[in-house]
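Q: Got a minute? One more chain.
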Amino acid sequence: MFAPNFLNNDKAIAEMDLIKIAEEVFAVKNEFPQFKAGDTITVHYKIKEGDKERIQMFRGVVIQRKGTDSSETFTVRKMSGSIGVERIFPLRSPFIDKIEINKHGRVRRARIYYLRGLTGKKARIKEKRFKA
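A: Always. Here it is, folded:
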């Protein structure tokens, strides 16, 4: 009438193994360095134009990080001439080739929107110094 308990456990273990295998196969394998708001980074982003593919670099200051796990995004701001340009990147995007950290900034907020109103020397961020 009733199935022995060990058969149900084996089935549950087999299902767990299949789930782990599926997660490993379909997961985007992007291992990026740790960065936060105030850091200056360069994002190497793949762009498809027709059948050609090239990598474009976007260098700027991280203004914010938002979301968790697969929906996490970060906003990078740079000055192009005298115009501020901001771009939002999904962290788990397969189009991000790599992320380089150029400088670690010292800021006291997680979202530094106040940079939008500043220009020139006022928009500088102090660099974080590490003890050797």
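A: The mean pLDDT is 85.
Q: Perfect, thanks.
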